Amino acid sequence: MGLGKATILSVLLFLGGCGSNAVSGAGESDVSAKPPANLQEARQLWRESGVVNYSVTAQMTCYCPQELVQPIRLIVEQGTVVSSKGLEQPLKNLTEDGAQRLTVDGLFLFIEKAVGKNVETLEVSYDRNYGYPMFINYDGHAMIADDERQYRLTDFEPLPDS
Which domain holds residue 60? Predict the structure, then answer.
């Protein structure tokens, strides 16, 4: 009986150790690194990462057409969206400009504009390894309905240079 418990414990410890280095959205990472504290630090980390081609899943929460609040998988090359795909239904209303706003550079620009205004709410969390915005919570004005937005980037993956 004691051998069975020891075997189970060993297997559980082994399996627990297998996933200990995984960090969502990043390859090899320094889990002790702090995420950037502000837009300037995030942009600097993003530039230093050297990533120019990547894939990412973007999801907006807003008063938008239903198809645009679904997860959207983007492939970005040299800062330009080369592919966008709705993960729950086909995209019909996502314009080229709309897709471009969901890129890392597009979201940095959104944050920069919001910082320049006196907005009600702007909360941003940045990826500790690459500096891209992982989550943005925005409300332009407390008394204006339907201007609230949230953006979430997940499944980020750098792609090789073409």
Answer: 39-158
